[in-house]
Amino acid sequence: MKKIIFLIAPIFLLSNMLISQVNTIANYDFNSSSSYPVSPTSMAPNITSTGASSEAFQNYTGVATTTVAFVQNATAGNAIAMTNSSGNNTRYYLFQLGGSDLNTYSSYKVYIQPQRSTTGATLITVAYSTNGSSYTNFSTTYPVSISFTDVLVDLSSVTALNNASSVYIKLMVSGASAPTGTIRIDNFQVQATKGNTGGSNPWTTSGNDISFLGNISTNGGLNIGGNAGFSNSATIGGALNTSSLNVTSNAVFSGGLTSSSGFMFDNSNGIKYIPNANGTKIMKYGNGNIVSSVLPVNCAANPNAGLNHQFGGGLQIFDYNNPTTSGLLNLQTWTGGSSIDASTSGQSTGGLLLNYFCGSNVFICTGQYGGNVSICNGPSGGIVSLGKTRVGNSILLSSSPHYNDAQLTVGGKLVAKEIYVVKPSFWSDFVFAKNYKLLSLEEVEKFYKMNHHLPDVPSEEKVMAEGVGMAEMDATLLRKIEELTLYIVQQNNELKELKAEMIKLKNQK
């Protein structure tokens, strides 16, 4: 078997390396507590904890944690209180820790927020034990203010607690100036380091591969010549270099992450980089075993689309069970720009759907720095909108009664070379029908003097309120032109009759 060396500053052989992770193993906010024993709000896996007191249970208005806390309890809620804190370390709060994983923890720290009344206990002394019967006082005592303050107790120097199967932490109070003086505590938290100094061996090796059965934490980088597997969480303080990576829980990398084969999120999902024909790579994500070649875009309009995917890099997302016949999404970059392509096989509604199922807004914009959004089509392509389209600040048009049923609204000037209105609801050739009732000019004169607009033409007030329908107005204007034609023809006929009558009278002389 080849020797495995981790490149961590300083460099250690694997057998000498401490693999560890800092966890908050017990967190009390007391918001749901109503009697002793009290239970924690949250605990680390395979850890148990209870809280008790020498005094009767009492609630008090609590406080939220500050940034000093190991984890944040954002709700103030309740604290637990002693109504009598007199005496010299005879009254106390007691917290017991246990569980099958406790013997893998060391370097304990405690966070607490105490507060007292004006006559309450002024000092807290921390005592610890591993059997619950004999206690040792920690060397430092902690003053208690009349307002909630942060207290951080660093017990990492107490080696007696390291890898113990039971840990007891007692908070003893003293310095009260009256028997009725009270003390309260909130947000009791215990933090410790989980490592390979207890329990079973947290790692196994085979050749250049390595597998960690527990948590791992490093201050520097990690270099593995083969594959790496983490059965729990991983925190890497520097760069990680490995052929492949499998983490079944959380992973945090403070430095770079390099893998020549890919990353598996679990036993069936992951990411791989696949080389193209020109030596560049495309990143692929899929469920199941990720295929080892670049998939072509299934594009009926361009059968050679798969041959065009030789760009500088990209991302492929596909269904592993049907990688070549189901939907395939390609995101690519090259020297001139980038593109998104989607296979259309089996997709009757189209190839690339944006927010098709969720119904939320889709924004394509250039933001505060300007620029244009261009939609380009080939000679046989086009833009098809199956719903309503709003251009510009069209919300300003929302007061129009036509806004809601309009398929296209433009909040600004519209410039076009030609506009065709197809199949308008009516046209005005009915003016020339024999039964059309043409108003007399006297009736027209009377109407416009009274209404200040022509008959059957919308008023200025209506136009300003509702707008003008282009096809309807064109038909209305045509109707007036055709009526004017009828009036002219009518007057022309009358003139011809008058002319004939004048010639007749002239000849009679």
Write the layout of secondary structure elements.
Layout: E1 5-6, E2 12-13, E3 20-27, E4 42-43, E5 48-53, E6 59-61, E7 78-82, E8 88-98, E9 105-116, E10 123-129, E11 136-143, E12 151-155, E13 167-174, E14 183-195, E15 203-206, E16 209-212, E17 216-218, E18 222-223, E19 227-230, E20 234-236, E21 240-247, E22 251-253, E23 257-264, E24 269-275, E25 281-287, E26 313-318, E27 328-334, E28 337-342, E29 389-392, E30 408-411, H1 441-451, H2 460-466, H3 470-508
Parallel strand pairs: 16-19, 17-20, 18-21, 19-21, 20-22, 21-23, 25-26, 29-30
Antiparallel strand pairs: 1-2, 3-4, 3-14, 5-8, 6-7, 7-14, 8-13, 9-12, 9-14, 10-11, 10-13, 15-16, 23-24, 24-25, 26-27, 27-28
CATH architecture of the largest domain: Sandwich
What class do helices, strands and sheet pairing give? Answer: mainly beta
CATH topology of the largest domain: Jelly Rolls
Which consecutive residue ranges, at least 5 long each, have pLDDT under 50?
1-18, 196-207, 306-312
CATH superfamily of the largest domain: Galactose-binding lectin
- What portion of the residues fall into strands of 2 or more residues? 25-35%
Tally of helical segments: 3
Q: Which overall shape is indicated by the principal axes computed on the Cα atoms?
A: elongated
CATH C-level class of the largest domain = Mainly Beta
**How many runs of DSSP E, i.e. beta strands?**
30
- Helicity, in percent? 10-25%
The biggest beta sheet is recorded as: 11 strands, mixed
What average pLDDT do the residues reach? 77
Distance between the termini: 142 Å
Q: Any idea how many domains?
A: 4
- Rounded to an integer in angstroms, the radius of gyration calculated over CA atoms is 42 Å
